[in-house]
Write a structure and sequence with these properties.
about 325 residues, rod-shaped, mainly alpha, 3 strands, Fusion Protein Consisting Of Minor Coat Protein, Glycine Rich Linker, Tola, And A His Tag, Chain: A, Domain 2
């Protein structure tokens, strides 16, 4: 049997074999660098835009899409074949620069004027709005200041009115107290004077009664020493009624107690029947002849009640019943 043995050529490649492909690659890369440098310089030489303007187009136009090269096909898997001799690398195809979009046409003078007018109108509108806002703020500040001043003035006026009302109330209360005190003092003075007058009147009446008793005793003693028969015993030394001046004394006692402020026509007379005890204390009173003025009749009855007691007559007695007539103008 014969066996066949495959032998591999393990001889190293000859020197200088890769110089050709390497030089070709360097040339291609140099061309690519030159193309990129030219493209950057072309873009840098574009004229600068010295103004801003809004360009309105009735129909928007989209720029043409950039050309896209199809991706290279994936490398096929190596076949399980005997190792072939390396082939020289293919020369790379120089890539052309992408086409740049054409620059937009420059704006016309009309477009520039329209844009400038629009910018001026916008600036004027902003200035007007700012001025209106400033004026509105100033007006609001003035209104707030005026409202605060009016409120302070109203509060001050209310405080002044309250202080004036308190002062008037205090003055009125002081005047009322002063009037009440004055009236009380006058009443006390009047009562004191009335008591003094009554005491003086009673003292005078007592003196008159004492004198009358002395005179009566002297008459009795004179009669006892005089001659006479039974006929003399029938003669009374005094009348059974009050003296002629007793009515005036009773009226003088009652009139200071009369309180009457109304106005009546004429000078009506009210007649009152008064009943008393032997010491002069009034026990009852009644109107026996009205004056025609109920107010004056009531004033007379109240005055008799305030009097309380009647003075004694010249003989020292007080009638148990008598009629008293009083007029408002007497």
């Amino acid at each position: 049997m014969h066996s066949t043995t495959d032998t591999l050529n393990l001889t190293p490649p000859a020197p200088g074999r890769w110089l050709g492909p390497l030089g070709l690659a360097l040339v291609v890369h140099g061309l690519l660098v030159v193309a990129l440098t030219w493209g950057v310089g072309w873009q840098r030489d574009a004229p600068p835009v010295m103004f801003e303007a809004e360009i309105w187009s009735p129909a928007p136009q989209a720029a043409a899409p950039r050309a896209v090269e199809p991706p290279p096909p994936p490398p096929s898997p190596p076949a399980a074949a005997p190792r072939a001799q390396p082939q020289p690398a293919p020369k790379p195809t120089p890539t052309a620069p992408a086409p740049q979009p054409a620059p937009a046409p420059g704006p016309t003078q009309a477009d520039i004027a329209t844009a400038q007018a629009k910018l001026k109108a916008q600036a004027d509108l902003r200035r007007t709005q700012a001025e209106a806002a400033r004026k509105a703020a100033a007006d609001k500040l003035a209104q707030d200041t005026l409202a605060a001043a009016q409120k302070a003035e109203a509060e001050k006026a209310a405080a002044d009115r309250k202080a004036a009302a308190d002062l008037r109330r205090t003055q009125a209360e002081a005047a009322r107290k002063a009037a009440a005190e004055k009236e009380r003092q006058q009443q006390l003075t009047q009562e004191k004077r009335e008591k003094e007058r009554q005491l003086a009147e009673e003292k005078r009446l007592d003196e008159l009664a004492a004198k009358e008793r002395d005179a009566q005793m002297r008459r009795i003693m004179g009669q006892a020493g005089a001659s006479g028969g039974p006929q003399a015993a029938g003669t009374a030394q005094q009348s059974s009624g009050p003296s002629a001046a007793y009515g005036g004394r009773v009226a003088a006692r009652i009139k200071p107690n009369v309180v009457f402020t109304e106005v009546v026509s004429g000078n009506p007379r009210a007649e009152v029947e008064v009943r008393t005890l032997p010491d002069g204390t009034i026990t009852s009173r009644r109107i026996v002849k009205p004056s025609g003025s109920p107010a004056w009749d009531e004033a007379v009855l109240r005055a008799i009640d305030r009097t309380g007691t009647l003075p004694r007559d010249t003989d020292g007695r007080v009638p148990s019943s008598l009629i008293i007539g009083l007029r408002p103008l007497d």
